[in-house]
Amino acid sequence: MLLFPAIDLRNGKVVRLTQGRFDRETVYGEDPVRMALTFREKGARSLHVVDLDGAREGVPVNREIIGDIVRTFGGFVQVGGGVRSREIARSYYDVGVSRLILGTAALTDPAFLEAMLTFHPERFYVGIDVKDDGLALRGWLEVDSRDPLEVMVRMAELGVKGFVYTDIQRDGLLSGPNFDRYEILKRTVRTPVFASGGIRDLSDLTLLREMGLDGAIVGKALYSGGMDLSEALALLRQTAAGQG
């Protein structure tokens, strides 16, 4: 299982939102590039970066900072937030972004999704952000009543290569992931699934790994000190070696 430290950007700063609410924001750093380097120094070779302003506005807002992160970090960087056209996608690929996490546009614009599947099939996943059992869209400000699991199955049939599944009700609370939901997803969705939301400690990572999750995105646990990144990466390496 891959581990992605999360860097969420708002107003040029590193922040975390509680349950996706913009009025419940905690600032953890003024320098996102420095934060990326700190994660790298602790052993990370992959990052998950979200432009929260972009998700809310529908266009990239922190793209310049993200470009700086990509150039400085030097590893695998996946980016989401405000990517709602193929032109925006290309601009991110041009600065070295490894993978895009598409949300609103992939879920509401069939022509956009078809274009991405045609031209960049290996370079994006779809973010499934779940709130009140529906799909949260446009910076988590709206909720679509479609069943997230059915949407994922259909998208996988269309050719989507993987998903990031975020349980918004648990995000930022350090209350533990929605293990029951991930167990269902791994039985049903035949593509990689990354877990996001509520991950609090090494035991959570261990259980997600045992369940067969392909990746985990960790934010607040790293910033609050509940999880040591170096220890987490070492644990996953040991687990992988033991299963190899």
CATH architecture: Alpha-Beta Barrel
CATH top level is Alpha Beta
Residue fraction in strands = 25-35%
- What is the fold named in CATH at topology level? TIM Barrel
The secondary structure category is alpha/beta
How many distinct folded domains?
1
**Which whole number gives the mean pLDDT?**
94
| Order of strands in the sheet with most strands | 1-4-5-6-7-10-11-12
Give the helix proportion (percent range). Answer: 40-55%
Overall morphology: globular
Poorly predicted regions = none
Describe this structure in words.
- It is a single chain.
- This protein is an alpha/beta fold and 244 residues long.
- It has one domain: TIM Barrel (Alpha-Beta Barrel).
- Helix content is 42%, strand content 27%.
- The chain has eleven helices and twelve strands.
Which descriptors would you attach to this protein?
TIM Barrel, alpha/beta, single chain, 244 residues
Q: What's this, in brief?
A:
With 244 residues, the protein is α/β, with parallel strands linked by helices. The chain has helices at 32-41, 52-57, 63-73, 86-94, 104-108, 110-119, 148-158, 179-188, 202-211, 220-224, 229-243; strands spanning 2-10, 13-18, 21-29, 46-51, 76-80, 99-102, 124-131, 134-137, 142-144, 163-167, 193-196, 215-218.
List the helices and strands and how they pair.
Layout: E1 2-10, E2 13-18, E3 21-29, H1 32-41, E4 46-51, H2 52-57, H3 63-73, E5 76-80, H4 86-94, E6 99-102, H5 104-108, H6 110-119, E7 124-131, E8 134-137, E9 142-144, H7 148-158, E10 163-167, H8 179-188, E11 193-196, H9 202-211, E12 215-218, H10 220-224, H11 229-243
Helix pairs in contact: 1-3, 9-11
